[in-house]
Design goal:
Shape: globular
Number of domains: 1
Number of strands: 11
Order of helices and strands: HEHEHEHHEHEEEEHHHEEEH
Distance between the termini: 19 Å
Radius of gyration: 19 Å
Strand order of the largest sheet: 3-2-1-4-5-9-8
Strand content: 5-15%
Helix content: 40-55%
CATH architecture: 3-Layer(aba) Sandwich
Length: 306
């Protein structure tokens, strides 16, 4: 499929693109591409968020419900900054806190694990219903990277929905994946050098870069995280000077990477050879988040009927 899906068609300012994200601010990964698609105003997009963004509430001093409302409002402002309409935005508002708790239940197994799997199957049905309502001609989501479990699960649930729609209708519906990060953020917004799938990169123009900056600025609550990311990029940019290829934060953000997913990818396999490289430093109340015991069992269950 990647060989026959042209980049210009993927980014065309027309049709019914669907953008699916786990968290508010995930869209900044492909904000320039979104701006390019929306700029002429003829596309009929849908923006779908699975979670409500409450995951960082415990460290903020805010009640999770209030924190979630703030995050969802920031996402609305980001959509507007990119040229979108809030009416095209769908919030499924699944609690990140509850999702993480259920990940640990999946790993625990037994009745607790079975109930957790049922919970995620129900979430997958909600995602599929939203995808069907959007009736997309192409779907954009974050890549399957082992960087964040909710990124991967949102990817998996969306792929499941699209596969079921393809089977029922015969429509191709390409899925375009965009890299967020892995190895904490040592490899951010780019596919790792040894990635073997379809990988493309496009340069953003001045309007797209400006819109992307406004999208970042919409997330006042995440400013500290964005500043940390910029510091990391500056370090890597300076280190690249040793091989004669220095770059700035502006250089780094001025291109975006994406590719078309191979239709029969096996999601029971991790994107990393070593389990410890998945979801590094991520835990729930001291319990490490793992692919083998949490995400792989869900992949098997979710894709059993596809």
């Amino acid at each position: 499929m990647p060989d026959v899906v042209e980049t210009d068609w993927i980014l065309a300012s027309e049709g019914r693109p669907l953008f699916v994200f786990a968290h508010q601010d995930d869209e900044t990964v492909l904000a320039g591409a979104i701006r390019r698609i929306l700029r002429e105003g003829t596309a009929r997009p849908t923006f779908l968020w699975w979670t409500n963004g409450d995951g960082l509430a415990p460290g903020s001093g805010m009640h999770p419900a209030a924190y979630a409302r703030m995050r969802m409002d920031e996402a609305t402002a980001s959509v507007v900054a990119l040229g979108g309409d809030p009416a095209d935005k769908v919030d499924l508002a699944s609690s990140e806190i509850e999702n993480y708790r259920r990940f640990t239940h999946v790993a625990a197994g037994g009745r607790l694990g079975a109930r957790a799997i049922d919970y995620f199957l129900a979430e997958a049905e909600r995602v599929e219903a939203a995808v069907r309502r959007a009736d997309p001609d192409r779907v954009f989501l974050l890549a399957w990277q082992g960087g964040h479990p909710e990124h991967d699960l949102t990817h998996l649930m969306t792929v499941r929905a699209v596969r079921r729609i393809r089977e029922a209708t015969g429509r191709a519906i390409p899925i375009v994946h965009c890299p967020a990060y892995e190895y904490v953020i040592a490899c951010a917004l780019r596919f790792k050098p040894w990635f073997a799938g379809d990988a493309r990169r496009v340069a953003l123009d001045a309007d797209q870069i400006a819109a992307k900056r406004k999208s970042f600025e919409a997330y006042v609550s995440q400013r500290g995280l964005f500043e940390h990311f910029e510091r990391v990029v500056r370090v890597f940019g300076a280190a690249s000077a040793l091989i004669g290829r220095p770059f700035t934060v502006e250089d780094y953000l001025a291109t975006e990477a994406f590719g078309v997913i191979e239709p029969h990818h096996d999601y029971t396999e991790s994107s990393h050879r070593l389990e410890r490289l998945n979801y590094m430093l991520d835990d729930f109340e001291g319990i490490p988040i793992r692919f083998d015991t949490m995400i792989r069992p869900l992949a098997r269950e979710l894709l059993a009927s596809v």
